[in-house]
Amino acid sequence: MVARRDLSPKRLWLRKSSAAATCPPIVDILRYAPEGTCPCEREVGGCFLGWGQLSAQGMDGVLITFEGGEACGKSTQVTRLERRLVGLGRKVIAVHEPGFTEIGLSIRHLLLHPKEGQTIRPETELLLFAASRAQLVAEVIRPALEGGTTVISDRFIDSTTVYQGYGRGLDLKFIEALNQFVVRGCRPRRTIFLDLDIETARKRQMRRVRPVGPSDRMEQLPNDFFETVRCGYLDIASREPERFKIVDASPPVDEVERMVWAELEDIFR
Ligand code: TMP
User: Which residue segment(s) compose the domain that 30 sits in?
Assistant: First the structure.
């Protein structure tokens, strides 16, 4: 039998807490944390309590997220949904990732417009996207949901799963754990995936009128990358059909808007 004081905070917490058994993300975070660097018991306990409180209170607001590849029309559909919900008398805020907060915007710039010749490691990329999200959740999304506001987010956790997990080939289990750690219970009630084939997306990108500069670092990735990203989204859709809805993004915007609403209407009735 190992003495209590000989256990690292990580092992001690795992042994003590039956909550760990019902909270796989925390176990994952701890499993991945190198010995001696894991969060202390109090922090881990606090993190878990945070999630419990959120689900117990059931937060009055609803989080809806939009996902998709490049030029699939997310921002147009986010704006249209926002307008519709305001028309229905809802309190609504639309956010986007990475960015929106001041810190998030600096991270966005680092990620999408690095200095010429600067190479960003996939691991760095993953952590920067997660950092931007952590800030957005804490500063904006959580307080809004707690205050009964509907939050529409242009990209959220699934982007990290498919771009950094499927696309960059980083460990999907670790990404799931990181996502959980960052959002701490603020999970999307429903996600609209605007599905567009790569060829059409590329044509739309060429037609885009850009306010500034050339395409960003991610947009310059090869078509193979975006094929993998799309497969990732389709995989999530097959695993989580209740939450993750596929909408064909190739028809005219009014038609896409109608299809998006058909997938969300029941939540706002
Ligand atoms: P945007 O063009 O929709 O503003 O998104 C910025 C880019 O960042 C887009 O290429 C998708 C990518 N991205 C990731 O790779 N991982 C993430 O977690 C997020 C939020 C975005």
Answer: 9-48
